[in-house]
């Protein structure tokens, strides 16, 4: 664990005072006061593992160090085993480094003891580790453990920034300006993934080297390499959740309780005797409800049984009617004209793996809210790869468990029953569904694998046959494996070679997942309608919905009953203020508050969103019937304050509940 070349420095009495020349006896140690001992490098007694690393005291030598202060010091290296000295750094080496640093003045606080120096040529800045953090220096916890001052630190360069609005940090979900700075970093593998530096560091500490990866595409190699370059410490340890004893013990518990309204068992609802009429059968969909065989008139354990809640979701969709039509941009075909209007409203029974009944049980909400969450799960699942425009990935485990088919089926059902637009398909994936893979030509943007993309770029930029043949020889094993090895006789052969690699990687490689996904999308005749009306469905599958405006929301909500004229005027003024950025909420927040959706579904809302005015202080949103009750106030200022307060805090609480549920 080399930490850089040693710097010159002479010893003096001030440095020796920090380290005694002989060890103390065990009777002289005072472990209870170790928390107040100062680090011999930075001379701070702070104990903050996230910022400074673990604080460790060698009681034998009365020596306290922060792990990062020791690791980043420029004139010391690890010469012992991990159990020797402090983290493998020998005591005598630490003494010498403290002595050397005592002659160096910190460029930030102007005090001596600056053991860390900038590695940039001709830069003479030295600093303590905490001072370096304060001045936004970069410390690389890899290789030679280099440190860069605030003038020479590495930066992330973006060739073009097409983001006009703020984007959420994909860890904490707070919105940030999509511009790379010291405190804001971008994923190297997903162009739309942005992070707070502090969020990344906490995640890296918890996940460790084996589980720290991009939160969008799950890439680890490219992602970790870039994060190490930008100063994120990734410890070589297992994830914190893997180290917790019996962390998943609850998952091994079977549900054994009879939940039917009238339990006939005299021994009670928890009585369970296998291979008898009093054996408890669990719901085949959610697994979190049960019944005695006798209580539900089941002849044998092999018979299927669903609880009332799951049964209502599966079968009681009879009130599904033709929703309000919304014409798609650039087309005269309405989405509800395209979807299967004559199909049965019943949902087919799905496998337990595809069902999320536990979400519906513990977090009741509208159908639209559930479908929005479902679409978010699909978009971020490992079944797809890519950043903004996604293609199918090759996941052998998902293929084995038939998850591609389930994903296609869930997407089809969501569209028919008023779910949101997917909006994340690549044009290539959509064209494969409509025109067939054999009639589709992928492009370089479809390749999410960095190494494969680099090979294709190098082939396309080759200028002569010699360079092209050299590249083919370099990638010989890979090209032979994928069946793209070809004889190069002229420079024009590079175009066919690049095309062959693209077709293999984007289409042929995922042929089995594609066929399975395609079969699932045939549910309720959705795939047939997509192929019949490709222009209408292209914007639904490949583009996110248009931004909401005051006019769109005003037209969307119908006024129910005779309402207060002044309150309706306040409502229109409020919508305009939100659009102009004069409110703490957004148009999407208002729609979520009233309907549970952040965009207008392709098939429209059912029932149609409505507003009414009531004598109360705060607004009330009802996601089940898409209604919004407005407060009647005496002034517009009071109206806006009450609307902002209710919407902002309601959505915050719902977000916390969803995060708590998903985390469990």
Q: What's the short version?
A:
With 664 residues, this protein is α+β, with helices and mostly antiparallel strands.
Textual characterization of the structure:
Residues 36-153 form the PHD-type domain. Pathway: Protein modification; protein ubiquitination. GO terms for molecular function: ubiquitin-protein transferase activity; zinc ion binding. It is a single chain. By secondary structure, this protein is an alpha+beta fold. Helices cover 37% and strands 8% of the residues. The chain is built from 26 helices and 18 strands. The protein has a four-stranded mixed sheet with strand order 15-16-18-17. A two-stranded antiparallel ribbon has the order 1-2. A two-stranded antiparallel sheet has the order 3-4. Helix 21 (526-532) packs across helix 22 and helix 23 (550-556) runs antiparallel to helix 24 (565-579). The longest helix is centred in the C-terminal third of the chain and has 28 residues, at 636-663. The protein is globular, with a radius of gyration of 31 Å. The two termini are 38 Å apart.
Features:
18 strands, globular, 26 helices, 664 residues, 37% helix
Largest sheet: 4 strands, mixed
Mean pLDDT: 81
Instruction: Give the end-to-end Cα distance, rounded to a whole number of Å.
Output: 38 Å
Helical percentage = 25-40%
Q: Strands of the largest sheet, in order across it?
A: 15-16-18-17
Strand fraction: 5-15%
Uncertain segments: 1-33, 316-333, 340-364
**Helical element count?**
26
Shape: globular
- Structural class call reads alpha+beta
Count of beta strands: 18
Supply Rg: 31 Å
């Amino acid at each position: 664990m080399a930490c850089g070349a040693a710097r010159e420095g002479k010893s003096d009495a001030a440095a020796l005072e920090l380290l005694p020349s002989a060890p103390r006896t065990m009777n002289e140690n005072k472990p209870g006061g170790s928390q107040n001992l100062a680090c011999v490098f930075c001379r701070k007694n702070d104990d903050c593992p996230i910022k400074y690393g673990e604080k460790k005291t060698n009681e034998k030598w009365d020596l306290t160090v922060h792990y990062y202060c020791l690791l980043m010091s420029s004139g010391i290296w690890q010469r012992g085993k991990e159990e020797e000295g402090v983290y493998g750094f020998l005591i005598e080496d630490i003494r010498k480094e403290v002595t050397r640093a005592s002659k160096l003045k910190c460029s930030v606080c102007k005090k001596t003891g600056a053991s860390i120096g900038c590695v940039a040529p001709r830069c003479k800045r030295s600093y303590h580790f905490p001072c370096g953090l304060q001045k936004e220096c970069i410390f690389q916890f890899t290789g030679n453990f280099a440190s860069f001052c605030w003038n020479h630190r590495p930066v992330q360069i973006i060739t073009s920034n097409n983001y006009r609005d703020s984007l959420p940090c994909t860890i904490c979900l707070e919105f940030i300006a999509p511009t790379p700075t010291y405190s804001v970093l971008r994923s190297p593998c997903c162009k739309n993934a942005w992070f707070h530096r502090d969020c990344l560091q906490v995640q890296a500490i918890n996940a460790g080297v084996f589980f720290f990866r991009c939160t969008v595409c799950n890439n680890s190699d490219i992602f970790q390499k870039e994060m190490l370059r930008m100063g994120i410490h990734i410890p070589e340890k297992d994830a914190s959740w893997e180290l917790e004893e019996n962390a998943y013990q609850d998952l091994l518990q079977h549900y054994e309780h009879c939940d039917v309204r009238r339990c006939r068992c005299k021994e009670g609802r928890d009585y369970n005797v296998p291979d008898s009429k009093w054996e408890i059968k669990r719901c085949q969909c959610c697994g979190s409800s049960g019944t005695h065989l006798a209580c539900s008139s089941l002849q044998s354990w092999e018979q299927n049984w669903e609880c009332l809640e799951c049964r209502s979701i599966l079968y009681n969709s009879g009130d599904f009617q033709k929703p309000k039509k919304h014409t798609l941009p650039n087309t005269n075909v309405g989405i509800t004209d395209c979807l299967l209007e004559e199909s049965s409203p019943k949902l087919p029974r799905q496998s337990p793996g595809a069902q999320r009944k536990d979400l519906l049980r513990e977090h009741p909400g509208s159908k639209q809210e559930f479908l929005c969450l479902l679409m978010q799960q699909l978009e971020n699942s490992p079944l797809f790869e890519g950043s903004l425009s996604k293609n199918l990935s090759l996941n052998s485990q998902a293929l084995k468990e038939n998850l591609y088919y389930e994903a296609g089926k869930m997407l089809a059902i969501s569209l028919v029953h008023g779910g949101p637009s997917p909006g994340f398909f690549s044009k290539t994936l959509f064209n494969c569904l409509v025109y067939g893979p054999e009639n589709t030509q992928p492009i370089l943007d479809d390749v999410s694998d960095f190494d494969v993309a680099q090979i294709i770029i190098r082939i396309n930029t080759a200028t002569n046959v010699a360079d092209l043949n050299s590249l083919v020889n370099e990638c010989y094993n890979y090209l032979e494996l994928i069946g793209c090895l070809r004889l190069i006789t002229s420079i024009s052969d590079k175009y066919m070679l690049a095309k062959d690699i693209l077709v293999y990687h984007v289409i042929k490689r995922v042929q089995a997942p594609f066929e399975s996904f395609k079969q699932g999308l045939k549910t309720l005749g959705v795939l047939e309608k997509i192929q019949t009306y490709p222009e209408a469905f292209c914007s639904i599958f490949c583009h996110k919905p248009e931004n909401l405006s005051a006019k769109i929301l005003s037209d969307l909500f119908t006024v129910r009953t005779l309402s207060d004229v002044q309150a309706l005027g306040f409502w229109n003024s409020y919508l305009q203020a939100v659009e102009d950025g004069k409110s703490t909420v957004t148009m999407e927040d208002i729609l979520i508050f009233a309907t549970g959706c952040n965009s207008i579904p392709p098939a429209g809302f059912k029932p149609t969103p409505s507003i009414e005015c009531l004598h109360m202080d705060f607004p009330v949103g009802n996601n089940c019937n898409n209604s919004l009750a407005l407060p009647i106030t005496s002034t517009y200022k009071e109206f806006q304050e009450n609307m902002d307060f209710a919407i902002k805090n309601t959505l915050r609480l719902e977000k916390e509940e969803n995060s708590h549920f998903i985390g469990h």
